[in-house]
């Protein structure tokens, strides 16, 4: 019998007591529920924005790639396709056949294809607004961009003229619209879909051998007539490239040699850490702030509540309640509150995130997506788990306090230091401030919790406002624009090219040249698809060093290590863009090494090379000033060599040796906004780049205009774009300034909103601490009154306690704010070009006065309730 423990079966009683305790402590429940709701709201907003960012990135990449399929096969025959897709790994597939390019549509490249069915349209993210697939010979599915260029209405049955070249002969047809869909500027081209009946009629005149010979003779075409483009989906998006290679090899072909394949970047990029370290750091910091804030208030609410009801828990122990049952009693109350508050917080947070998402993307490269947050169960799973864990952690220690208390200690304990009151009766004449400080010192944990939550809210606002105020408009504009206006194709002006077509209407530029007040024009040139650079031995060794140090991009979205190994093995050169500029523009390049001598550069013997690597991962340069560099230049007769295996280089190039004058960084206003992974951009003499005008063109033109004529210049530009060619665009210094202010305003809005929620939690924590403290110390106040303390003195003491809380929070937040902003925010200077650290005291002037007002009002209002009872009534109640 000595080792046997009797068990009391009072679980039902514990459950009933939990509910009754909740009903009794209505004020505490209000504060606790509000804290849990706000914690759930903040977690949900954070995870919604994080997942929304991933969704937007994935959507952009898929629209750019042109498909939502996992991967695909390029330019294969029907026989190859059927052999490859006949594999258990393939869940489903669709295909289309390339026919040609429409020649009567100039504003946008338009491809003519024959699809396998609705599955192909779904895989290529084509959603018909009206109608269906083409069935009859003369039917066609068309997009709105094509109809708009032809000035035709969007309606079924509309006749659409189409002219294209097929096997060397010109074909002119008129089709009827069987279905139409919204055109997408993100995709590199528009696509019209004809019927299988029309394709069979067109194709039936030629043998397979004739089609193959024709394709081999067309060196300038990237698409091959009659070949299949296949879109493949597997069971899941894991190991896409591995699965593609396997199904190709299982069919007896060699991947990338006999059969070319492609992986959808949209799936890969979201699995390989597409967020940069700065974004990850911000996300984790926000997660830590929310976790800390929620923990502070929920812990404080329940800790104060436990202390307040400690005698009740002691009595329960006297009646036989075990330590474990008391912990369950407290945690059950917490879980009951959590069951209602967390879902409400998640719902409010999700709706808040849906409102915030478009505001965050406004003025960024994602604005054109018109993105709306899409439902994801992960949002609610993550936010629910983190909210529940935060509540559980917060209530863990208070529940232990309730379980550990003994009946004797509980009867004596009041949690506010009242047991030491007798030693202080002779000190009533001391200063009230000393008494206030002494009272706060009785429960140091509570004081630390309240001060910490107030401090945290001030720190969040301080860091956000300091960061927002450190962005410099002038530096931003200098990086984004040269002059007052930049005229270019929309592939340049949108900030992220949808296709490498930067053609500018000559009439557009002639009209701009003729406007009044134009004081300067500078042209920027770009050569598309330049020959790869074969690096010299020293440069190649530096390339190898960068790779060995992990400074090259090896993610699958950039081709993995295959392309890097080919460069190091000498099997291919280094890709990159080639630019040329009017001489006046060279001064805007940022020189990293060496110096630019404009007179020497105009001799045509020198070249400028860019920093090797992307802005967020600069690696230095593989060429140094003074070194020789050999560059293959395109000539008038140069053409791309394209065969069965795709592009294989250029014909009729001429090698020229230059001296590297300087290593530079190209500002955004002078680049095509397109990045070549592990590539090297070159700035050549203008005359050398223009030797092949077919593949070299004016990328953008900068105009300087007198101030009083800028409005008229802008009106001309708007009129031309609206009435003549919507593919032409314009960037103005004024519009960029507005976008900048809008973007900074969004940053401030999000930061202030987060700070407001954290501040609201801090105020709730503060109010709860003051109210419960006053309630628990009522007997102490009676004794103080009985020995001579006046009501006015008692009121002042309580107000001083609240003010001291805020004063301590002010001092701590100011010291930590300076240290953190200097140690964290200042580091952004290293990664953001137009960022210059500037500390601001504005957040402290905004939030601390409000806290002081609350610190005065809450004790004042709470004391008024005590004041209503006479001293005799209070003494009678205290003696009970």
TrEMBL record:
**What Pfam families does this protein map onto?**
FtsX
- InterPro entries, A to Z: ABC3_permease_C (IPR003838), Macrolide_Exporter_MacB (IPR050250)
Q: What is this protein called?
A: ABC3 transporter permease C-terminal domain-containing protein
Which spans of this chain does the record mark as coiled coil? none
Q: Name one GO molecular function term.
A: transmembrane transporter activity
Instruction: Tell me where in this chain the ABC3 transporter permease C-terminal domain is found.
Output: 286-400, 753-870
Q: Which residues cross the membrane?
A: 30-54, 278-302, 334-353, 373-394, 448-471, 754-776, 797-822, 842-863
User: What keywords tag this UniProt record?
Assistant: Cell membrane, Membrane, Transmembrane, Transmembrane helix
UniProt organism field: Blautia hydrogenotrophica (strain DSM 10507 / JCM 14656 / S5a33) (Ruminococcus hydrogenotrophicus)
What membrane topology does the UniProt entry give?
Answer: Multi-pass membrane protein
Signal peptide per UniProt: none
Q: Where in the cell is it found?
A: Cell membrane
**Record keywords: Transmembrane included?**
yes
Q: Which GO terms describe its cellular component?
A: plasma membrane
């Amino acid at each position: 019998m000595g080792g046997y423990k009797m068990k009391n079966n009072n679980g039902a009683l514990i459950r009933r007591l939990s509910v009754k305790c909740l009903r009794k402590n209505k004020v505490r429940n209000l504060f606790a529920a509000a804290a849990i709701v706000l914690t759930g709201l903040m977690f949900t907003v954070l995870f919604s924005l994080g997942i929304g960012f991933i969704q937007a990135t994935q959507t952009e990449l898929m629209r750019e790639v042109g498909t939502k399929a996992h991967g695909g096969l390029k330019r294969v025959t029907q026989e190859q396709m059927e052999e490859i897709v006949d594999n258990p790994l393939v869940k489903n597939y669709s295909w289309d056949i390339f026919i040609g390019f429409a020649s009567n549509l100039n504003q946008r490249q338009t491809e003519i294809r024959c699809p396998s069915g609705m599955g192909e349209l779904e895989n290529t993210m084509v959603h018909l607004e009206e109608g269906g697939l083409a069935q009859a010979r003369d039917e066609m599915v068309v997009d709105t961009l094509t109809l708009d260029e032809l000035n035709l209405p969007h309606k079924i049955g509309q006749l659409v003229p189409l002219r294209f070249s097929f096997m060397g002969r010109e074909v002119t047809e008129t089709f009827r619209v069987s279905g139409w869909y919204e055109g997408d500027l993100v995709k590199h081209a528009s696509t019209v879909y004809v019927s299988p009946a029309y394709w069979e009629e067109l194709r039936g005149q030629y043998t397979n051998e004739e089609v193959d010979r024709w394709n081999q003779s067309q060196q300038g075409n990237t698409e091959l007539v009659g070949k299949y483009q296949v879109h493949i989906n597997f069971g899941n998006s894991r190991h896409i490239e591995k699965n593609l290679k396997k199904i190709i090899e299982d069919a007896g072909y060699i991947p990338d040699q006999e059969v070319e394949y492609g992986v959808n970047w949209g799936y890969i990029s979201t699995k390989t850490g597409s967020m940069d370290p700065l974004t990850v750091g911000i996300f984790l910091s926000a997660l830590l702030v929310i976790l800390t804030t929620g923990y502070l208030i929920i812990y404080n609410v329940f800790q104060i509540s436990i202390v307040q009801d400690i005698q009740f828990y002691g009595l329960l122990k006297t009646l036989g309640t075990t330590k474990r049952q008391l912990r369950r009693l407290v945690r059950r109350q917490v879980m009951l509150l959590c069951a209602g508050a967390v879902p409400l917080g998640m719902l409010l947070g999700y709706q808040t995130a849906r409102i915030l998402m478009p505001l965050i993307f406004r003025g960024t490269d994602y604005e054109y997506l018109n993105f709306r947050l899409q439902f994801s169960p992960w949002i609610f799973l993550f936010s629910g788990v983190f909210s529940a864990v935060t509540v559980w952690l917060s209530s863990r220690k208070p529940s232990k306090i309730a379980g550990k208390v003994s009946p004797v200690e509980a009867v004596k304990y009041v949690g506010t230091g009242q047991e030491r009151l007798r030693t202080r009766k002779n000190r009533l004449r001391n200063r009230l401030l000393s008494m206030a400080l002494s009272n706060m010192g009785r429960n140091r944990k509570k004081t630390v919790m309240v001060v910490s939550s107030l401090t945290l809210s001030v720190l969040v606002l301080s860091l956000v406002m300091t960061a927002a105020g450190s962005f410099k408009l002038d530096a931003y504009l200098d990086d984004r624009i040269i002059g007052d206006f930049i005229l270019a194709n929309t592939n340049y002006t949108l900030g992220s090219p949808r296709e490498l077509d930067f053609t500018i209407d000559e009439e557009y530029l002639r009209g701009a040249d003729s406007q009044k007040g134009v004081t300067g024009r500078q042209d920027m040139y770009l050569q598309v698809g330049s020959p790869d650079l074969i690096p010299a031995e020293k440069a190649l060794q530096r390339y190898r060093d960068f790779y060995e140090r992990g400074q090259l991009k090896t993610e699958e979205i950039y081709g993995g290590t295959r392309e890097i190994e080919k460069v190091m093995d000498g099997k291919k050169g280094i890709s990159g863009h080639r630019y040329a500029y009017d001489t006046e523009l060279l001064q805007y390049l940022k020189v990293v090494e060496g110096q630019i001598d404009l007179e020497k550069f105009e001799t045509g013997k020198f070249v400028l090379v860019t920093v090797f690597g992307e802005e967020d991962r600069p690696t230095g340069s593989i060429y140094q000033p003074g070194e020789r560099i050999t560059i293959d230049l395109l000539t008038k007769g140069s053409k791309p060599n394209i065969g069965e295996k795709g592009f294989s280089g250029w014909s009729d190039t001429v090698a020229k040796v230059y001296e590297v004058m300087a290593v530079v960084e190209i500002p955004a206003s002078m680049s095509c906004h397109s990045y070549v992974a592990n590539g090297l951009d070159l700035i050549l003499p203008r005359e050398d780049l223009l030797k092949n005008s077919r593949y070299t063109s004016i990328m953008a033109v900068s105009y300087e205009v007198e101030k009083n004529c800028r409005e008229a210049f802008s009106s001309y530009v708007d009129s031309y774009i609206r009435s003549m060619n919507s593919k032409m665009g314009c960037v103005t210094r004024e519009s960029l300034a507005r976008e900048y202010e809008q973007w900074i305003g969004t940053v401030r809005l999000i930061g202030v909103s987060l700070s407001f929620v954290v501040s609201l939690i801090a105020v709730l924590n503060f109010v709860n601490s003051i109210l419960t403290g006053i309630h628990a110390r009522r007997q102490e106040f009676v004794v103080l009154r009985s020995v001579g303390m006046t009501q006015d003195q008692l009121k002042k003491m309580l107000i001083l306690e609240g003010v001291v809380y805020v004063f301590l929070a002010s001092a701590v937040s100011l010291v930590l704010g300076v240290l953190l902003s200097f140690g964290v925010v200042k580091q952004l200077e290293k990664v953001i070009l137009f960022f210059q650290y500037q500390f601001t005291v504005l957040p402290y002037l905004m939030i601390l006065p409000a806290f002081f007002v609350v610190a005065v009002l809450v004790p004042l209002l709470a004391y008024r309730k005590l004041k209503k009872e006479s001293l005799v009534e209070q003494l009678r109640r205290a003696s009970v």
